[in-house]
Write a structure and sequence with these properties.
The chain is α/β, with parallel strands linked by helices and about 160 residues long. The protein contains five helices and seven strands; from the N terminus they run ααββαβαβαβββ.
C-alpha cells in the first residue's frame, strides 16, 4: 500500500465532535508504520479525557478494513502531548467556517480563558467583543462564548499548553 493511499484513507477519518476536521487536519497522526501486510498508525489524543479518541481509533480501523486491510492497529502515543499548534492551517480555517473559533496563540488564549479578556473573535461577525459564558461548551474540549455585537453563541476550541 502506498503512502498516498494510506493518507487518503486517513483523510476519510474525521473528528467525531467536529466532523469537518479530518484527523490529518487535527495533526494527531504521529507515525505510519507498514510492515508486510500490517499497518500501524500512531495517534496522540487531543485532550486527555476526550471520549472521542476511542471513536477515532475505531474509525481508523474501520476505514482500513473497508479497504481490505485487516492487519491494522492504532497505537496511542501520549508524549509529547498534543497542542493546538498541531492543527493545520487548513484545519483552523475549517474550524472557523464551522462556527468554532480556532485557537489563538497561547498567551492570548490563556488570558482569554483565565482573565476573561475579550480576545476571542466571533466566528459570525469577527468582533472581539465577546464574553465567555461557560468553561465547558458542547464538550469538555471547548468553552462556550457569546458575541456582544451579534449575540451569536459559539464554541471555542480550547488551547492547551
Ligand atoms: Zn458576532
Amino acid at each position: 500500500m502506498t503512502q498516498e493511499k494510506i493518507h487518503s484513507i486517513l483523510t476519510s477519518v474525521t473528528d467525531p465532535e467536529v466532523p469537518v476536521l479530518t484527523i490529518l487536519d487535527l495533526g494527531i497522526v504521529r507515525e505510519i508504520k507498514q510492515e508486510n501486510a500490517a499497518i500501524e498508525i500512531s495517534i496522540t489524543p487531543t485532550y486527555s479525557g476526550c471520549p472521542a479518541m476511542g471513536t477515532i481509533a475505531d474509525d481508523i480501523c474501520k476505514a482500513f478494513r473497508a479497504e481490505g486491510i485487516e492487519n491494522i492497529s492504532v497505537k496511542m502515543v501520549l508524549s509529547p502531548a498534543w497542542t493546538t499548534d498541531w492543527l493545520s492551517e487548513e484545519g483552523k480555517k475549517k474550524l472557523s467556517a464551522y462556527g468554532i473559533a480556532p485557537p489563538l496563540d497561547h498567551d492570548a488564549d490563556k488570558a482569554a480563558l483565565w482573565k476573561g479578556a475579550k480576545l476571542i473573535p466571533c466566528p459570525q461577525c469577527q468582533s472581539t467583543n465577546t464574553k465567555m459564558i461557560s468553561m465547558f461548551g458542547s464538550t469538555a474540549c471547548k468553552s462556550l462564548h457569546q458575541c456582544n455585537e451579534c449575540y451569536e453563541t459559539f464554541d471555542y476550541f480550547k488551547c492547551l499548553k
